[in-house]
Write a structure and sequence with these properties.
Elements: H1 8-24, H2 30-36, H3 43-55, E1 59-60, E2 69-70, H4 72-82, H5 90-101, H6 107-122, E3 125-129, E4 138-147, E5 150-157, E6 162-168, H7 175-189, H8 194-210, H9 217-228, H10 230-233, E7 245-247, H11 262-273, H12 275-283, E8 295-298, E9 310-319, E10 322-331, H13 336-355
Antiparallel strand pairs: 1-2, 3-7, 3-10, 4-5, 5-6, 8-9, 9-10
């Protein structure tokens, strides 16, 4: 796509119209733009510039209003050339970190909290896609004592990925018992995929946990924790792509005027209920040429992948050699500076947690 050439006044007026519309959801008039955005030109000059921008496809003139609203083309120029993204503020960064770290440390639970927290702060629909993990091979389990009642479980996966999970134990487990359990887990589970471990762990550890083969009551108790919590300890998104999609609350969009139309909300909910298509869209935004950093597709740029009038903002996160994406879906009338900063910061937080 050839670069868009706008003179300085056109750039200022276009940016002012977009910011006004994002803030108010009302078409921007020349008097409002002239008065509130410090352009130091008359309403008549602004009006003429807005007319020129409309002729070039950057603004749209609703027949019921004297003001203009931005087109997808305008938002694209705004995102690429006119806006400036600042880092997430300290309070929001602390809130995100606190919310995402709270609770269990499985990948799905971290992604669920991240999508939820990101969506609430951005006031858009948070969305995340888990890595394809079902066939990832476990190469080693390591148990590390953190305190008398807390252990760290380190799962080494083929390809170099690591997952770190903390478990609570009752009473002190001696070094000998800890080493024995680690040996049993590596002997029985090493070389299996995570999907195989989740489905067969009970059978593979049953004789060890139920007899004296593991040596001591403490080691048997620890193995029983692995049996009882296997769904969390070896948790992965299910094999179906649609099941790897994690969503925040769609209700955060309910107050936005774009979704006052029941038809628009219905189309969005249909997309979230049948998630296979959404998973395909998100999967296409993973690592590859041109896919680094934050990706933004606006309105018609999404083709038939999303209902009309929506923007998708995503960034990739990593978990060792594995990766997925996290971001938001919302109307094209989106506070892009705020949303892009939040999405970028959240992806970094998720990467830090999953890489351990």
């Amino acid at each position: 796509m050839p670069p868009v050439v706008l003179n300085e006044r056109e750039r200022q007026v276009l940016a002012a119209v977009i910011r006004s519309y994002i803030a108010t959801a009302e078409p921007a008039g020349s008097r409002t733009v002239s008065k509130h955005f410090g352009l130091n030109v008359s309403p008549a000059t602004v009006r003429n510039t807005m007319s020129d921008l409309e002729e070039r496809g950057f603004l749209f003139h609703p027949h019921t209003s004297a003001g203009r609203i931005p087109t997808d083309k305008a938002y694209r120029v705004y995102v690429d050339e006119l806006m400036s993204v600042s880092p997430v503020g300290k309070a929001q960064a602390q809130r995100l970190e606190s919310e995402i770290q709270r609770g269990t440390a499985t990948m799905e639970s971290i992604l669920r909290r991240a999508a939820q927290s990101l969506g609430v702060l951005a006031q858009e629909l948070g969305v995340a896609l888990g890595p394809r993990l079902d066939e990832t091979i476990l190469t080693r389990v390591e148990l590390v004592r953190m305190s008398a009642e807390r252990l760290m479980v380190v799962l080494s996966l083929k390809g170099g990925a690591l997952r770190t999970i903390f478990i609570e134990v009752k009473g002190d487990i001696g070094d000998e018992a800890l080493a024995l359990v680690q040996s049993v887990l590596n002997e029985r589970l090493g070389g299996l995929s995570l999907a195989e471990i989740r489905s067969s762990l009970g059978q593979r550890l049953r004789d060890t946990a139920a007899t004296s083969a593991a040596g001591t009551p403490a080691s048997r108790d620890l193995l029983n924790i692995f049996l009882q919590e296997r769904e969390q300890l070896f948790d992965v998104p299910m094999a179906a792509e649609g099941d790897a999609v994690v969503l925040g609350q769609a209700s955060v969009l309910a107050d936005q005027p774009e979704f006052g139309d029941a038809g628009n909300m219905k189309r969005l909910l249909e997309l979230t209920e049948t998630r296979t298509k959404l998973a395909q869209v998100l999967r296409s935004r993973q690592a590859g040429p041109g896919n680094a950093g934050v990706q933004i597709t606006i309105g018609a740029e999404n083709g038939t992948a999303l209902p009309g009038g929506l923007t998708l903002v995503t960034a990739e996160y990593s978990a060792g050699a594995l990766s997925g994406v996290i971001g938001v879906i919302g109307p094209t009338r989106m506070p892009y500076e705020k949303v892009i900063a939040l999405v970028s910061h959240t992806s970094s937080l998720v990467t830090g947690l999953l890489d351990g």
